[in-house]
Amino acid sequence: MPIITYREALNQALREEMSRDDRVFIMGEEVGVYNGAYKVSKGLLEEFGENRVVDSPIAELGFSGIGVGAAMAGLRPVIEFMTWNFALLAIDQVVNSAAKMLYMSGGQFNVPIVFRGPNGAALQLGAQHSQAFESWLAHIPGIKVVSPGTPYDAKGLLKSAIRDDNPVVFLEGEMLYNTKGEVPEAEYLIPLGKADVKREGSDCSIITSGKMALVAVQVADQLAKEDIHVDVVDLLTIRPMDVEAIYASVRKTQRAVVLEEGWELCGIGAQVVDFIQRECFDDLDAPVLRVHQADVPMPYAKGLEKIAKPDAAKTIAAIKQVMYRA
Amino acid sequence: MASKKKPDPRRDSQSLRVAGDPALDRELLHSMLLQRRFEEKVGEAYALGKVGGFCHLYIGQEAVSTGIIAQLRPDDYVIGTYRDHGQALVRGITPRAVMAELFGRIDGCSRGKGGSMHMFDRHTNFLGGHGIVGSHVPVAAGVGFAIKYRGGDQVCVCFMGDSVVNIGAFHEALNMAALWKLPVLFVIENNRYGMGTSVERAAAVDDLSRRADGYKGMDGVVIDGMDVHAVRTATEAAIARARTESLPSLLEVRTYRFRGHSMSDAVSGTYRPKEELDEYQTMDPIFSLRDAMVIAGTLTVAEWDAMEHEVAATVQDAWDFADASPEPPPAALYEDVLVDTTS
Ligand SMILES: Cc1ncc(C[n+]2csc(CCOP(=O)(O)OP(=O)(O)O)c2C)c(N)n1
Ligand SMILES: [Mg+2]
Fold first, then answer.
1. Do A119 and A248 share a domain, yes or no?
2. CATH number of A281's domain
3. Interior CA angle at B140 toward B188 and B236, to 5°?
4. Residues of B in contact with A62 (CB under 8 A)
């Protein structure tokens, strides 16, 4: 099977879907002539022309709204945010327009749009460029929120997101674009709303998504050497959340750690813990622990940034704690 | 101090309030009268608790919706603000469906899920009343983008209040509409106030239409919004520009609302003197057309009375229909959040 980067996987998904359906177009800053700020849209302008690969001014609110209107009028826009930090300027269109349109129109106007771009911290980009917005976005009914960690997942999920008749928020990772993985040559789709168990084990569950899924897999492989077998549930889609996959894993392992990139308060982990306590209370042998970013804006200094971020060491410590092996 | 110059429909009017083609005039008069009497009824329903939430009446501004929407083709698009009852009616959503929506009933045009501020109708390409000031302006540009993308010759008309010219979304949308030559009519209904803030206290520009100057190729036009013919004439040109040349326009239509901002606001309020309201009421778009027609001999008093009767019956029928329509069942709560993609 070919091994390609996460970036190439996304590029393939865009190219395939644009070839398949001429209602699909991509719009955003630097997506065309510049080939994409992170080169995800590389070569698409040349292949599909400037009507379908549209360089926008720096106007997140405006071009997101243009995407919503185009979707209401029958097109299938892919709106690229250079990063999700900048999408805060457009959050009104995601939350008040895209997520509400079907409901407030009584089912008449759906908005088949994808809002995509890198989310979360990279390296030393400082407070304004290092934020993970999963929980903000997953809070909103009326949209789907997807967060793939591997090239395989990124491609299959982006293709499904583009074909979905609903607004889909697609969270990529700046640190993921260069990561590599196996991606089959033949076309495939990954359904939204279904988790993937990335490692099987019976001692403890890690529930996670996105970039943190890679950390979880690394942790599982490392702990296997100590004869601790971790079940890694990669949610892939955060809204709607595959709660059955979480329950199945926790019922098997009876212990869980929730690992996420964002902050603690009202984070994804808080919700996962709530699901677990309601449905798996009697299955649990230990309180569920959470691993997340420190409750501070991201610092620039290398050492501080490292201790602010969730990582493998913190996750291993949490697992040993829930297993009373600390 | 800000400029004292006030938009004045009398001073700015290019056309005299004379009657035109009798059949057309009758149509325009009827269209405006229906909105007026319909909304008066909505006011009654609100007082009785049959309509809830925020409710913004359009009374006084009817020449704008009638003057513009009546010229559109069925495949054109209309989008606007929360002050949307008038536009919905002129676009052809039935009085029954609009009233039922106001009553929060299943037969409402948005199945009772939208309410006063969110009228939608797929059949007439009515893309909604929107509740966030300025938010729908880029959405309108997106509709224009889709039209152009497909190589169509439809137009999208976007109604907005005067306060919208001061919000970022408006400028981002106008910039891209001009840059990409999108067939959109941006229509500012300048009723002189955004809630209680006068235009002079909110916008650092005298003529709101001059906002168009910042965008290459965009026409900015001032229109007397109390004269339905003036609205028609000015819009005709803008529609043609959009349809044949795919060019956007910014139309500032000077009008006035005869009621408070919403149902909780007194008719004149603390922010505008009663004399000002009285003065504008002498320019009532409906009665001035009626009087011009009577003087021209194209409308008799008996015909007017008959029109009033017919409209009253239509409005009463809408009320009766809405009142009899069931509330959405509890199961509707979870419907329409997402399109079901499982099948
Ligand atoms: C972004 C935003 N801020 C504030 C409000 C509350 N609000 C609703 S209508 C309104 C005034 C709008 O005035 P204008 O645009 O002139 O329209 P009009 O009501 O006169 O038709 C305000 C402040 C809102 N809906 N959206
Ligand atoms: Mg106003």
1. no
2. 3.40.50.920
3. 55
4. 138, 141, 169, 171-173, 175-176
CATH code, domain carrying A85: 3.40.50.970
Is residue B252's pLDDT more than 60?
yes
| A190 within some domain | no
pLDDT averaged over every residue in chain B: 94
Cα distance from N-terminal residue to C-terminal residue, chain A = 40
Query: Using CA positions, which residue lies closest to atom 11 of ligand 1?
Result: B194
Residues 115-144 (B) with a CB less than 8 A from some CB of A: 118, 120-122, 127-128, 130-132, 135-144
Verify whether the Cβ–Cβ distance A166 to B146 is below 8 Å. no
What is chain A's mean pLDDT, rounded? 98
Question: Which range marks the domain in which residue A291 is found?
Answer: 196-322
Note the Cα A61 to chain centre separation in Å: 21
Q: State yes or no: ipTM above 0.90.
A: yes
Q: Which domains does chain B have, with CATH numbers?
A: 22-315 (3.40.50.970)
A210 and A177 fall within a common domain = no
Q: Cβ(B198) to ligand 1 under 6 A?
A: no
pLDDT band at B266 (very low <50, low <70, confident <90, very high): confident
Cross-strand partners of A207:
A233, A258
Closest CA to A113 of A55, A155, A56, A74: A74
Q: Model confidence over B25-40: pLDDT tens digits?
A: 999 999 999 999 999 9
Q: Is the pLDDT of residue B260 over 50?
A: yes
Write down the catalytic residue from A60, A134, A172, A261: A60
Q: Give the integer Cα–Cα distance in Å for A120 and A133.
A: 7
- For residue A162, which of A122, A189, A194, A127 has the smallest C-alpha distance? A189
User: Is there a single domain that holds both residue A43 and residue A157?
Assistant: yes
Q: Is residue A81 part of a domain?
A: yes
**Contacting B residues, span 312-331, partner chain A, CB-CB under 8 Å:** none
